[in-house]
Design goal:
By secondary structure, the protein is of the alpha/beta class. The chain is built from 14 helices and 13 strands. One of its GO terms (cellular component) is lipid droplet. Keywords: 4Fe-4S, Antiviral defense, Endoplasmic reticulum, Immunity, Innate immunity, Iron, Iron-sulfur, Membrane, Metal-binding, S-adenosyl-L-methionine.
């Protein structure tokens, strides 16, 4: 990319482009590492013999080496919709003060800079090779695992620790009429220089003035839409009087194009929409991703004695879900998530910045990262990193890297 083009980009977008270029340079550098060139400043550290698969030593390393690459921050539980299957319900009205939320986000960004929690691991992963690159007073550590597709950190920052933050709820545009989430989006892109900043919203409270103020800092906006039949949306709980959820979806799609934000759709497949054919509508909207979730039960949220929802009537079988997917197999942007793929493959922070462990079918919180740090809290997250990768959790999530003609044109001319 010519430097003259970078000068014309808004500051936040120029930083994102430079970050992507640094990441690719880092990948090239590591691809050359096996050549064993005697470059000044390179130091190889030999690894101990591999631990047996499934051994205590192996499990302890997996637990200790988790890096919060992609984090979902549900900073509010309040919502203006009443979706019957919601699995993150309004059990509190708490929202952290803005500066405390920023402090926690900065901790997540720094978590992988020198090992989770700020300390380089003394012992490398069994069966792996650590390479340190000395550059002045800075050291960047990266793990190349033998026979694995896994890295604890990336070289040449800023791809260290958290790379992607997704803001969700509740409804993230409720607190301070969208200003709260807008300031967090700007902070994460401008100050933390995260490669990807995204939001999941029902879309009902988003106004064009928000895009004008914060759109350049947002990579992806995901809008929840479970049906293109407004009667079904009302039945599910996505209704607000005379407002039409589907009409609003199209309006938001247009704003995303105008303000260079990648557009995504999330749909929860349940008893009331499982027979619907959405091919034509999804192809017309042309989202970068269409996430299709199987309706999931979480005890204490949408089922059980202390739940605020009764989602049992929305549940569908695995066979029903597969039939829905088969009906939409020609939609290229479809990304399916069954109950099995979804349950433990997300790093979820609640409104107190506690990781939520769903392995026992309910959300069991860790202590807050604000109190004990990321390293101590993430051990209790229940996060299944293998499933995260298997479900396609790592993808092209920065709009600077997306090969979309309309988006690239907008980025280069804005």
């Amino acid at each position: 990319m010519h430097l003259g083009v970078l000068r014309r980009l808004p500051l936040a977008l120029a930083r994102a482009v430079l970050a992507a270029l640094r990441g690719r340079l880092g990948a090239l550098c590591w691809s050359l590492a096996p050549l064993s060139l005697p470059l000044p400043g390179w130091r190889r550290v030999s690894a101990p013999s591999p631990a047996p698969a499934g051994s205590r030593r192996e499990r302890e390393w997996d637990e200790a080496s988790l890096t919060p690459t992609s984090v979902n921050y549900h900073f509010t539980r309040q919502c203006n919709y009443k979706c019957g299957f919601c699995f993150h319900t309004a059990k509190t009205s708490f929202v952290l003060p803005l500066e405390e939320a920023k402090r926690g986000l900065a901790m997540l960004k720094e978590a992988g800079a020198s090992g989770v929690g700020g300390a380089v691991p003394v012992t490398p992963r069994p069966g792996s090779l650590f390479i340190a690159l000395q550059s002045g007073t800075d050291s960047v550590w990266k793990e190349r695992a033998v026979g694995r597709q896994r890295f604890t950190a990336s070289v040449f920052g800023p791809f260290l620790g958290m790379e992607k933050i997704n803001f969700s709820g509740g409804e993230p545009f409720l607190p301070d009429r969208g200003e709260f989430v807008g300031k967090l989006v700007q902070f994460c892109k401008q100050e933390l220089e995260l490669p990807s900043v995204t939001i999941v919203s029902n879309g009902s409270l988003i106004r064009e003035r928000w895009f004008k103020k914060y759109g350049e800092y947002l990579d992806i906006l995901a809008i929840s839409c479970d049906s293109f039949d407004e009667n079904v949306n009302v039945l599910i709980g996505r209704g607000q009087g005379k407002k039409n959820h589907v009409e609003n979806l199209h309006k938001l799609r247009q704003w995303c194009r105008e303000y260079a934000v990648a557009f995504k759709i999330n749909s929860v497949i349940n008893r009331f929409n499982v027979e619907e054919d959405m091919n034509e509508q999804i192809k017309a909207l042309s989202p970068v991703r269409w996430k299709v979730f199987q309706c999931l039960l979480i005890e204490g949220e949408n089922c059980g004695e202390d739940a605020l929802r009764e989602a049992e009537k929305f549940v569908i079988s695995d066979e029903d879900f597969e039939q829905f997917l088969d009906r939409h197999k020609d939609v290229s942007c479809l990304v399916p998530e069954s109950n099995q793929k979804m349950r433990d493959s997300y790093l979820i922070l609640d409104e107190y910045m506690r990781f939520l462990n769903c392995r026992n079918g309910r959300k069991e919180p860790s202590r807050s990262i604000l109190d004990v740090g990321v390293e101590a809290a993430i051990k209790f997250s229940g996060f299944d990193e293998k499933m995260f990768l298997q479900r396609g959790g790592k993808y092209v999530w920065s709009k600077a890297d997306m090969k979309l003609d309309w988006l690239q044109h907008k980025l280069l001319t804005s």
